Every structure is written in structure tokens, then in C-alpha cells.
Amino acid sequence: MAHSARRSVVVIGAGASGLTAASTLAQAGHDVIVLEARERIGGRLLSAPAALQGSLDLGATWFWDDERHVRALLTDSGLGSFPQHTTGDAFYQDTGGVKRLDGNPIDARSQRFTTSAASLTDALAATLPSGTLQLRTPVTAIRSTASGLTVDTPRFAIDTDHVVLAVPPALALERIDFDGQLAPDLVHVAEQTPVWMGAVVKVVAEYPEAFWRADGLAGAAFSRTGPLQEIHDMSGPEGRPAALFGFAHASTARTAGSGFGAAVTGQLAQLFGPQAAQPLALHVQDWSTEQWTSPAQVAQLGDYSLFGHRRYQHPALDGRLHWASTETARGYAGHIEGALAGGQRAAHAILHALPDPNEEPAQAKPSLSA
Questions:
Q1: pLDDT exceeds 50 at position 364
Q2: Burial environment of residue 328 by CB neighbours within 10 A (0 to 12, 13 to 18, 19 or more)
Q3: Would you give the DSSP letter of residue 89?
Q4: Which backbone phi and psi does 344 adopt, to 5 degrees?
Q5: pLDDT in tens, 104-161
Q6: What gap in Å lies between CA 302 and CA 194, rounded to an integer?
Q7: Which helix (H) or strand (E) is 142 found in, with range?
Q8: Could you tell me which of 232, 313, 227, 238 has the C-alpha nearest to residue 270?
Q9: DSSP letter string over 320-355?
């Protein structure tokens, strides 16, 4: 395996937490490289083009007014937001049928991104120096050495002072060989920590218009019969693009097989009328099958008290391996806010540990393109 140039920091994962850490460190003058296994950035911030206009979020969708890291990023990036549509009545569905509720007790007051959730990670990536991002580069091993850490990939190895693990802990333990160097209790916590959205299928149905609003409906529903367990309005500003979205258990989608889409549109028609049976497009995003998000046992990981565990607040491997994904955040774990906070926590710990690069002469580094 070719041995690449040494980097001060290696960030594993180009989602919200990894790009936050990389952007913070790069702006402070540190030599950072981001290794991303996928062919795209964003992680669980994933958006797809709508059939008519705009984008539809297939991953994270909302943020809340008290989430200061998200607010700061929106301000810094010049990105906009708008309130989640909550006006109108909701539905409750069970084996007895469908009941229209007076008002909407399902949707909480939240905010949406004017363009898309993925615009956040696009904005973060735009702050990085050319060559920082390496896509299609999964990490296979991390080993302690006399001078720091070595990170292995299928194409090259990198020696580094610090590593930011910006992927779900359970995924990291499944995919990366740590050469038995992590403490057993840390391994146990990481292997048992759930993956936010990891066992979920998100379905987005796009329509020519938000017809349910004309009927006094909020586009919200809670169901005990499924296949979607909860449903919300995902229309953009002023109702365009028009869309409904919902969540299903991955096991439900797997059991239904090729009939899952028909089952979803059938349920939507039951709730919102015959117009709902004919969406312009039906997007089905099964996060449990995303090999760079969810470990094989993701459906069995249910102890959410492990989110933000104390072991994640302190770097491992002699202070050089930093946890950063949303699952590791003390507050807002499972939110975009938690991912941004995790990335900031890791970056600030590294800034404290490394000397100021502005006080040292810069040195040219060979390319990693080989």
C-alpha cells in the first residue's frame, strides 16, 4: 500500500459533523483531509431533485429555533429557512379506521431549509481548500504508532496527529479495524449505540399541488396500521414543491417487497383522498441498506440512552481519536444540531492540542491522487 503525505488531521466522513470539524480546522490553518466512502458528501443530509422544481429531503428535514449551531451556519452561509406547515386538521389511523382530528397535535413547531438540508453540507464543503475532500475512500483500519496514528484505506495510508470519527460509532466499530487498541468498555458502548435514522425508511410523495391544504388539512397523520407510521407535509415555501412524507420501519418495507410503494400510496389515498394515490414521484430512501450509514445489526440497536455517552466526550487512543457524529453529542443527539456540535467539539479539542500552524512555516505536500 502506498504511504501518502502526513496530515495533521484526518476526518472520516463528509457529513455535517465531519465537514464542520474540517471547516473549523482548515480555517484555523491546519492541514486536514476528509475521507468519505461514498461518491457524494452529506451523509444523512440527502436531497433529491423534485419532479417540478426545487428539492426534497430524503434524510434530515427539520431544525428548531433553539438550535444555535444550525442558525449560525445558515447566517454564515446566507441560506434561508421557513416554518414547517402545521395549519389544519390531522388524522389518526388504527384498525378501526381513520379519524379526523380537530387541529394538529402531531406536528411540533419547527423550521425547514429553503433550498434543502443538503445545502448545509454543500456550504461547509465550499469552505475547504481544494483537494481536502477524498470521495470513494473508505477507511479500513486505524492504528496507534510511536508518532501518532496511521489511517489505512484501500488506496493509501496516512500518518496523522489526530483523527475525527464523524460516522456513527456502531458503523465505525463494524467497518474499521482498530487493532484491539480501544478500551473494551468503549467498544461495548460504541457497538450498542443506535444509529439515528438507521433502521428507518423515509418516503416522499410529490404532487402537482398541496391539495390537502384546500381541504383544511395539515398533511399530518399518525397511524398504527401503516405502512407509514407518521406523515407530515414536506412542501416547500408557498407550497412548492408539493409533497407529503412519512416514516416506516425498514422491516415493514422489506416484508412488503415490491408492493411497498403501492401500499404507501394506498394508505395516503385512504387518508387524503384519491388525488394522493397518483403522486408525480415516490421517493423511497431505506437508510438501513445504506452500507456507509448503518451496520448490519442496526435494527437491534435500541438503547438511545447511549446517545451522548460520557465516553464520547473524551478522545480515545491517547487523546488522538475524536468522536463527532450526532450520536455522540451531549445535547440534540440525533439532530443536525447534534452533528454540528459534535464536529465543533472535536475541532476545538484538536485546536487545543495542536500548535498554532500560523507560527510554523508552511510546507508543500505531495498529492493524494495516486
A1: no
A2: buried
A3: E
A4: -65, -40
A5: 999 999 999 999 999 999 999 999 999 999 999 999 999 999 999 999 999 999 999 9
A6: 6
A7: strand 141-145
A8: 227
A9: TEEE-SGGG-SSSTTSHHHHHHHHHHHHHHHHHHSP
pTM (predicted TM-score): 0.94
Max Cα–Cα distance, the chain, nearest Å? 73
DSSP state of 214: H
Q: ∠ CA 115-121-124 to the nearest 5 degrees?
A: 115
Do the beta carbons of residue 24 and residue 178 sit within 8 Å? no
Please tell me which residue, 365 or 272, carries the higher pLDDT value: 272
Q: What are phi and psi of 248, to 5 degrees?
A: -130, 155
* Grid cell locating 72: 449560525
Which position has the grid cell 495510508? 157
| Mean of pLDDT values over 200-209 | 98
Reading the block at residue 157, the C-alpha cell is 495510508
Would you mind telling me the total number of residues written for the chain in this entry?
370
DSSP-derived secondary structure letter, 284: E
Residues 203, 49, 268: CA angle, nearest 5 degrees: 30
User: 311's torsion region: left (phi>0), alpha (psi -120 to 50) or beta?
Assistant: alpha
- In angstroms, the Cα distances linking 176 to 19, 40, 53, 159, 267 are 20, 20, 40, 16, 41
- Distance of alpha carbon 303 from alpha carbon 300, whole angstroms: 9
Q: Which helix (H) or strand (E) holds 144?
A: strand 141-145
The span from the CA of 334 to the CA of 189, in Å, is 17
- For residue 248, the cross-strand partners are 201
> How far is it, in rounded angstroms, from Cα 312 to Cα 328?
6
Q: What secondary structure letter does DSSP report for 261?
A: H
Q: Please provide the DSSP assignment of 153-198 as one string.
A: -SSEEEEEEEEEE-S-HHHHHHH-B-TT-S-HHHHHHHHHS--TTT
Comparing C-alpha atoms, which of 337, 243, 338 is closest to residue 282?
A: 243
Phi/psi region, residue 40 (left: phi>0; alpha: psi -120 to 50; beta: rest), is beta
In single-letter form, the type of residue at position 167 comes to V
